[in-house]
Amino acid sequence: MDEFLATANLGNGRSIHVATLSRHTIKESGADHLGFSGYFVFETEDNPGRTGINILGKAISFEAAMRLVDIWRLRPAEA
Q1: Which domain, by its residues, includes 35?
Q2: Domain count, the chain
Q3: pLDDT for 12-61, tens place per residue?
Q4: Residue 79 belongs to some domain of the structure
Q5: Would you say 41 and 61 are in contact if contact means Cβ atoms under 8 Å apart?
């Protein structure tokens, strides 16, 4: 099972996440060059005809992933 550290709704059926991903999901996303362990930053889309994930990057360690989550949570709330 994937371990989600953070999730945010971007609107229009899209969300962004920091989480672990399964080997299968990483391969299906064409990101196996990033390796299979660790925490990934990725966008999901749940719109008709456009479902799936887009892996944007990878945190180099658990500590880096947590720091990213901390920075994310410190951002100003949108009006």
Answers
A1: 4-74
A2: 1
A3: 888 889 999 999 999 999 999 999 999 999 999 987 777 789 999 999 89
A4: no
A5: no
